[in-house]
């Protein structure tokens, strides 16, 4: 693309004239050439987002999380089980629409689970309702390692948010992390979020409370071949005591106990969570 910048006689010194020219060129660039953080910030605040998802931002910090993972507008991203609400879909799908690729790895189409079928149907309806933002969304199936969530070695990022406890309960952590490794290209990034269990307590192998120790999650990824890169504390919540009769689901947004101690749980807020970043090493 050639950008014509009008020139006029100036008394600026040559270095300042060059700086002024660069500023003018940057201002003329289209949105696709803007900094990824600026695009993400605009989409986080965008009208395509539902109010139900937006009110959770103080606990989920979407701009900071996606920036930490390093997702760019030209990335090939697979999100595992986005659900009917599509919290991350509302941001990632329009962000990747023009130059990247967003794949929703939904639950297995033939699953006997009513919850899976409800999520799949809700996601399908959400995508169909907004073709301007979601018209290029790709959909694949996820069920541990029983399907390819993307062509092998094709994805730049695989992202999963608060799912590990479910795979532990189903005995499918090895298959799930193996599927992520298979889908990613060498140098690709696995981004993980999960409810953080207490480091000094034994890990329930079925994670019935919903909490998973951070070192246990790192162990699952490393066993699949990933290398740990780092962590972010952006979704940490020191108010979360992690000792509730209904597990993590006592907290918002679920409030599984209904009105019982609701004010107490609302004051705690959403769970304490770790954010982990892994890389698939090059051969």
Q: Care to describe what's here?
A:
With 283 residues, this protein is of the alpha/beta class. It has a single domain (35-279), classed as Rossmann fold (3-Layer(aba) Sandwich). 36% of the residues lie in helices and 17% in strands. It contains 12 helices and 7 strands. It has helices at 14-28, 36-44, 51-54, 57-60, 62-69, 89-96, 114-129, 131-134, 164-170, 173-183, 214-223, 262-268; strands at 76-80, 101-107, 138-142, 155-161, 184-195, 227-232, 273-279. It has a 7-stranded mixed beta sheet. Strand 1, helix 6 (89-96) and strand 2 form a beta-alpha-beta unit. This is Methyltransferase. GO terms for molecular function: methyltransferase activity. InterPro entries: S-AdoMet-dep_MeTrfase_Alr7345 (IPR016980), SAM-dependent_MTases_sf (IPR029063). Residues 1-33 form the signal peptide.
Labels describing this entry:
283 residues; alpha/beta; Rossmann fold; seven-stranded mixed sheet; 12 helices; 36% helix
Topology record:
Layout: H1 14-28, H2 36-44, H3 51-54, H4 57-60, H5 62-69, E1 76-80, H6 89-96, E2 101-107, H7 114-129, H8 131-134, E3 138-142, E4 155-161, H9 164-170, H10 173-183, E5 184-195, H11 214-223, E6 227-232, H12 262-268, E7 273-279
Parallel strand pairs: 1-2, 1-4, 2-3, 4-5
Antiparallel strand pairs: 5-7, 6-7
In short:
The protein is α/β, with parallel strands linked by helices. The chain has helices spanning 14-28, 36-44, 51-54, 57-60, 62-69, 89-96, 114-129, 131-134, 164-170, 173-183, 214-223, 262-268; strands spanning 76-80, 101-107, 138-142, 155-161, 184-195, 227-232, 273-279. The protein has one domain (35-279): Rossmann fold.
């Amino acid at each position: 693309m050639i950008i014509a910048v009008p020139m006029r006689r100036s008394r600026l010194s040559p270095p300042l004239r060059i700086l002024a020219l660069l500023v003018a060129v940057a201002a003329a660039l289209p949105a696709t050439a803007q900094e990824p953080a600026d695009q993400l910030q605009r989409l986080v605040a965008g009208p395509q987002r539902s109010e139900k998802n937006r009110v959770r931002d103080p606990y989920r910090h979407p701009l900071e999380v996606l920036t930490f993972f390093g997702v760019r507008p030209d990335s090939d991203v697979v999100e595992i089980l986005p659900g009917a609400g599509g919290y991350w879909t509302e941001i990632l799908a329009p962000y990747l629409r023009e130059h990247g690729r967003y794949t929703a790895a939904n639950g297995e189409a033939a699953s006997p689970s009513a919850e899976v079928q409800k999520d799949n149907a809700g996601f399908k309806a959400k995508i169909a309702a907004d073709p301007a933002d979601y018209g290029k969304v790709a959909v694949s199936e996820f069920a541990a390692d029983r399907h390819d969530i993307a062509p092998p070695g094709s994805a730049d990022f695989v992202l999963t948010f608060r799912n590990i406890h479910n795979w532990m309960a189903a005995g499918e952590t090895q298959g799930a992390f193996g599927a992520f490794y298979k889908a990613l290209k060498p140098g690709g990034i696995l981004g993980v979020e999960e409810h953080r269990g207490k480091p000094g307590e034994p890990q329930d192998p079925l994670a019935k409370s919903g909490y998973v120790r951070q070192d246990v999650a790192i162990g699952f990824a490393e066993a699949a071949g990933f290398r740990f890169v780092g962590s972010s504390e952006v979704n940490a919540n020191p108010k979360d005591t992690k000792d509730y009769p209904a597990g993590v689901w006592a907290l918002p947004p679920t409030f599984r106990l209904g009105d019982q101690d609701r004010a107490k749980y609302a004051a705690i807020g959403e769970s304490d969570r770790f954010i982990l970043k892994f890389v698939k090493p090059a051969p």
